[in-house]
Queue: 2 jobs
Job 1
Amino acid sequence: MKQNSNTELPIDEEVEVSPGFIVERRSFMAVFGGMSLAMLSGTIAKAAIEESSDKNISFDQFLAQANPLAQKLVGDTSISGQELYLRSIAALTSKLHNIPVPTKFNNTGQGKKAEDYKIGFVPGGDPFTVLHWRLEPGAICTPHVHEYGNVVSVGIEGAVRISNYVSTDKFDYEKNETFQIKKTVDQLLTAGSANLVPLNMIHGFQAGPDGARGLDITTRLLPKPERSTPYLSIANKATDEFTGIYDASWAYKS
Ligand SMILES: [Fe+2]
């Protein structure tokens, strides 16, 4: 077999990693030669997951395994490719211990009070960005579409109710009328559990009575669109309970 050779191309960028939250980061796009990407990805994913299957890992150990694995898998943005990417990262988080707490948290402005929902940046992820979020009791993260990146949310403390939805049709961001979305997941995220958000999925959070902390491991896959974050208003009651169809409309914020 031909020897694999990798070249890393540095890319400096300002990244809006969460609605209204921008960090400057340096990422690396790996260019591979020789061994096929699928073969390399499968081998590394298996080794990384086996490596982490029998012991707890620190955040630095997580990064040491997750960064090269994510770099290998991130190029396949197909539905199944993103599924493998998100599940592989989520699997590595399952043994994470002693997650660092950022020195600085910024208000997201999404809560009813300024302090309700804060996010801090945890450096070291590549190609993903790690955000540490804190929700006060009952605080909300307004439902929004992830239209240029995917996310693994990981619970650290407390409990947060997460709802995920997909569009029943292609999203039309200019549409003023009501449209339909389909709830695919209704999950109580607690310490150690994970929620996956591939490209173009909607997610929204509401913290329980004790509040919650967690990570969003977010990866940009497409250029950021010009428009503001596509928040949604979603009907409280489904129009079809069995299939989880809800009426929704855009609720853009400036
Ligand atoms: Fe989000």
Job 2
Amino acid sequence: MENVKVLVEALPYIRDFHGSTMVIKFGGHAMVNEEIMEKTIKDILLLYFVGIKPVVVHGGGPEISEKMEKFGLQPKFVDGLRITDEDTLEVVQMVLDGKINSKIVSTFIKNGGKAVGISAKDGLLVVAKKKTIRKKMGDKEVELDLGYVGESEIVNPEILEILVENSFIPVISPIAADREGRVFNLNADVVAGHIAGALRAKKLIMLTDVPGLLSEPDNPESLISRIKLSELEKMVDRGTIQGGMIPKVESVIIAMKSGVEKAHIIDGSKEHSILIELFTKKGIGTMVEH
Ligand SMILES: Nc1ncnc2c1ncn2[C@@H]1O[C@H](COP(=O)(O)OP(=O)(O)O)[C@@H](O)[C@H]1O
Ligand SMILES: [Mg+2]
């Protein structure tokens, strides 16, 4: 009886979500443990089998840094973005396309899901351009060169529409190319945000390694359960968002301004966090709404 109750309670959510697209960003930090990764993939498959169309975008931060150190390279970040020289780019491609993407796809397949691994350059999904950032140094503003770090210039969701309409689950690595075929490393959060926007997804779900958006970055007890988009934008201006949370929030804002209904930032290392967030009233992480 208890089991049946759970199903019945989920019915309004299932009805609401059926047939809708959800973009899920699989965080590097939420993937370091294979067991957790497989559990998350099973949860995504549950969504898939109740009629949701998942589109997965993954990062690979911690593993890239680990491999870089093995090759004697030192990982460096500016505002959560990895400075990427030629050697780093090679490691990034090896880890993201060669290892993580392949691992996610095979784990989906093992559990009965028709996953297809692509990178953001495939089918011109994301056309990239070199990203430059300006940063205040004392009272001067300087332009920083991050190397082969790109940003998305255009998103063509056609390849995803073809896959999703035919019941495939796209698994996307954040490596894109510009029109000359030059390859760039993009932040996976931002790729997820642009893709969610271009697909007019119902939801953008960001899995990470903290409970959600925190009002005090160092205090895990300071979780914000619900926040309006306008409030989130104010938080950015106040500087409460730092490091790896910057591209996540930026991506949430991009996606929601392009018509995504809701965004969720949740702890991917907690068992069943996606299901708790989507199918219970209370949720588990941060929900951003219009
Ligand atoms: N206001 C904030 N709320 C939550 N996390 C924050 C905040 N400001 C900075 N962070 C940091 O952002 C990190 C998540 O980003 P990141 O390290 O890039 O992980 P991921 O692999 O999920 O992209 C958290 O571990 C946390 O240290
Ligand atoms: Mg990150």
